[in-house]
Design a protein that fits this description.
mainly alpha, 3-stranded mixed sheet, 20 helices, disordered N terminus
Length: 465
């Protein structure tokens, strides 16, 4: 009975794998034992092996299996460097084109050129085609690992073509159909082809409405639609509707993860994702421009605060509550921004729906501010009464200023958290650039004007400071 393949989701198998590789067992037996482990677990073990032990592993497993292992390595250039150029090229040839490009991109330019020169013509052609797309286009994420059959084939001929191609392409769950000119004609589920009778017309089992994307489409414009179909793979077409590749579910997952990383760093006012080993100068170039912009906005807030110097001098104790108001408005704005970014991912969002969403978020901000304001009115009033010794009337007028400022600033924060990313989207800029720090700083300005303005108008005049 065949031994069940070992799961490595929640366990580190590095020591077990290393022990097998270091054993004196025959090569066939070592290969058979390693077949029970996932390629990712074997990749994680390479760093614990010596160069000689890794060379032994490569010989035993063969180029195809090693190529699958290398696809999981983060520092693949270190291991490629241990191989001869001919051996490295043979391994890269066995990879899916998207994985091969990822590996080549990690290498120094001279090493990369040498390896590309050693690749066979088919591998070179696929790499050149995928590299013709920019990083922002979905075609840069596709692979040429798929099964393709002719539209006019019989079921028997389609099965024969499937078996022939399956030796070199393992994405077999969906079979793609093209006409005589190579133009995309639909897709067939593997199960439907297997159970089809020999007398069945192939056209009867072709899904004509199967989703597809064009290679030059922007990733951010089509990734959400691709996700929604939940298919193992999606065909990629050129401008002439010819099938040139597919986006697999793993590719989609990787792209979604990359998009999430990009949105996260932009949300934090950074222009791009950073690597742990990234040079200091490169990190500074990404962060400094945004920090400068935020500093300018911060200086504006400080300048406006300075305009209320007389009020602060007369009512020094009210400064204690400034951070409370700024924090509450900043938190509210950041919440709204996060929700707005998710909503704006929908490409089919109408103008009416946008206004409806804006009105809803404004109401959420208002009622959150009202609730928080009422709580502040009660507790801050009592705090001022017993901390400063004022009478109840004076104390609750002070807490009233805090409450109203909290209400106004949280409402404005919700509005800004919607409007700013919507404006960026309208200008065809990434709305994630409307980061939390930018919105928080703008709302700080509104909060300072509201709070100290009310203190000047109400407290100074009412109590004749």
């Amino acid at each position: 009975m065949e031994e069940e393949k070992i799961s490595s989701v929640s366990k580190d198998y590095s020591s077990e794998i290393a022990e097998i590789i270091r054993s004196n067992l025959p090569a066939d037996e070592i290969r058979e034992k390693l077949e029970q482990y996932h390629e990712n677990d074997i990749a994680s073990t390479l760093e614990f092996l010596s160069k000689e032990e890794r060379q032994k592993l490569y010989r035993i497993l063969g180029n195809e299996k090693v190529s699958e292992i290398f696809a999981y390595l983060d520092d693949v250039e270190d291991y490629i460097g241990e191989l001869s150029n001919e051996k490295a090229a043979d391994i890269i040839e066995e990879m899916d084109v998207d994985d091969a490009i990822d590996v080549l991109d990690e290498l120094e330019d001279d090493k990369k050129e040498k390896l590309i020169a050693l690749l066979d013509d088919e591998a070179k052609k696929d790499i050149v085609m995928v590299q013709s797309f920019t990083e922002e286009q979905i075609g840069s994420k596709m692979t040429t690992n798929y099964i393709c059959i002719k539209e006019k084939s019989s079921v028997k001929e389609a099965m024969k073509s499937l078996i022939e191609q399956a030796a070199d392409n393992d994405n077999v769950s969906t079979i793609y159909v093209v006409d005589d000119e190579g133009k995309y004609a639909g897709a067939i589920e593997l199960r439907e082809l297997i159970i089809a009778r020999a007398t069945t017309e192939l056209e009867d089992i072709i899904i004509k409405s199967y989703p597809y994307v064009y290679g030059d489409e922007e990733i951010e414009n089509c990734i959400n639609e691709i996700k929604d179909y939940d298919e193992d793979s999606i065909p990629v077409l050129d401008c002439q509707n010819k099938l040139i590749g597919v986006i697999t579910s793993s590719d989609i997952l990787e792209v979604v993860h990359e998009q999430a990383d990009e949105d996260y760093v932009k949300f934090a006012a950074v222009t791009d994702v950073e690597d742990i080993n990234e040079p200091l100068i490169k990190s500074l170039k990404k962060r400094t421009p945004w920090i400068f912009i935020l500093m300018c906005l911060g200086m504006l807030v400080s300048t406006v605060t300075g305009l209320f110097e007389g009020t602060i001098k007369e009512l020094a104790y009210i400064v204690c509550f400034q951070s409370l108001i700024l924090d509450m408005s900043g938190n509210g704005g950041t919440q709204t921004l996060a929700i707005t970014l998710r909503v704006l991912d929908r490409e089919d969002l109408s103008t009416k729906e946008k206004f409806k969403f804006l009105f809803k978020e404004m109401r959420v901000g208002f009622f959150n501010g009202l609730i928080m304001g009422l709580i502040c009115f009660i507790f801050m009033g009592l705090f001022v009464k017993f901390r400063n010794g004022f009478n109840y009337h004076h104390s609750f007028v002070v807490s009233g200023c805090i409450s109203i400022a909290c209400l106004v600033s949280m409402t404005v924060a919700s509005i800004m958290g919607c409007l700013i990313p919507m404006l960026f989207k309208k200008l065809k800029k990434d709305p994630a650039v409307a980061s939390g720090p930018m919105i928080t700083t703008i709302v700080d300005l509104v909060s300072v004007i509201t709070y100290y303005g009310m203190a000047s108008l109400i407290l100074i005049k009412m109590f004749h400071y």
